[in-house]
Amino acid sequence: MNSSPSCTRRQLGALVASVFAADVQAQPASNRPLTLMVPYPAGGLSDVLARIVSPALSRQLKKTVIVDNLGGVSGAIAAQKVLHAPADGQLVFQGSPNELILSPMANPAVKFTSEDFRMVQALATSYVVFLARPDLPVHSVDDFIDYARHRAQQGQPITYGSVGNGSLNHLLGAYMAKRIGIDMTHVPYRGGAPAEQDLMGSQIDIFLTPYSKKYDDQRKAGHLKALALLNPRRVPGLLRYPAIGESKQLSDFHHLTWSAYFVKKETPQSVVVALHRAITAALSDPSVVAGLASNSQVVSQPLSLRQAEQTYAQAIAQFRGIAQALG
Question: Among 20, 105, 205, 307, which has the highest number of CB atoms less than 10 A from its own CB?
Answer without folding.
Answer: 205
